[in-house]
Amino acid sequence: MRPKGLLIATVVLAALAGAVWWSNRHKKEDTETKKSPQLWSLNQDDIVSIEIARRDGERTRIEKAQDGTWRITSPEPLPADRDAISSLVSSAAKVEADKVVEEKPEDLAGFGLKEPHARVIVTLKDGKTRTLLLGEDAPVGGGAFAQLEGDPKVYLLTSWVKGGLDKLAVDLRDKRLMTFQRDKIVRVEVTRGRESFEFSKNAQGDWVISRPQTFRADGWSVDDYVRRLQDLKLDPLLTSDQKADLKKQFESGTPVATVQVTDAGGTQKLELRKTKDKYYARSSAVEGFHLVQEFDAKALDKGLDEFRNKKVFDFGFNDPSKVEYRSEKRKLALTKSGDKWLADGKAMDAVGVQSLIDRLRELSATAFPSSGFTTPVIEITVTAKTTEKVLIAKAGDKYMARREGEPALYELTAASVEDLEKAAQDVKEAPAEAPKKK
Asked: pLDDT tens-digit profile of 277-323?
């Protein structure tokens, strides 16, 4: 009995395995042969306008100007967000459905297409149009029903396709408070109380502080400041009462900062004020008054010293080829030769030299005094991509550094200079190589 039962079980198992194989094979074939129905495919460059007419009466329309730029013309003229417009045009150029739901439906009301949720009308430069009717969302599985004007079929669009087309003006408008082009900036002027300063770029494309004096700038800090200015956004859904309240709060607020950004297209101005614990802004680039988040406002409320480059040396992560160090305690003239450091023709211990370079690289100011530099006690010259010379003088219980050819002074802690001196004293000759075994 047992062998017979085993035989039956084996046959049943084989049959089930065959059924699974056959089912999987058909699923695979169905997947491979299934093609998404294409409603239309257009050349993006041929599209001159897109209109989204909603059932509730709201009409959003974008038009392409002669110079190729897009603008919002309805429900009112508005500046356009280039990325949002580009996404809409791309979505409107090629429309694919997930599948055909009904070839010839008897009642469109069940799909929300008797009175469509929205009509998407795409106009081409030859005057021809394509119109897509958007119906209700599918009750299960996601997506939405749609129909081509003039075609009886009802299609199912994926949520992704529907979302790419079903847009309002608030989705497409430029919401930035400042619309300057970051890569075309000429200067940034900041007024903060009695303090006023300016950033600009030098011939190498690096940020510098150009007013009240020429100082080295912390490029990352300036870039972050500019980015935060450009990231400020307006709320496009404000009511009339909310707009009036924002105006009132701004006008009664205490000035925090005024920023002017000049690019190739002109100058834009942002005024930032504070009332109690909230911040408000007015921009010359857009109408109205706007609430600014505390985090963003505090990032814009910065003084000159917060943008100064605190590093005494500029060589950063570039490897120096020459280091000269002179003080009462140590005199060094180090030159890189291949992978070795030499002093007076003798090989020096690479670990000690690297420690000295690290201390030089880390040397940073804790403050920027306007005076107090006396007789130098340390003189350092570092050659990497450029040659930098720095003098360090004692100032009470601290030290001050000055870069050659620059007016700025850098206050240093005694500990940082003591670490530097120790690193210089620790530079020794490289240990003699062990004789090779014969």
From this structure: 999 999 999 999 999 999 999 999 999 999 999 999 999 888 899 99
pLDDT tens digit string along 142-201? Answer: 899 999 999 999 999 999 999 999 999 999 999 999 999 999 999 999 999 999 999 999
Amino acid symbol at 254 = T
Whether residue 419 contacts residue 359, with contact meaning beta carbons closer than 8 Å, is answered with yes
Reply yes or no: is the peptide bond before residue 75 cis, omega within 30 of 0: yes
Closest CA to 236 of 373, 80, 103, 354: 80
All structural domains of the chain, each given as residue ranges with its CATH number in brackets, are 38-172 (2.60.40), 182-307 (no CATH), 322-425 (2.60.40)
Q: Tokens 């021809």 belong to which residue? A: 128
Q: Give the alpha-carbon dihedral of 97, 103, 104, 105, to 10 degrees.
A: -60
Distances (CA, A) of 402 to 310, 380, 406, 424: 12, 11, 7, 19
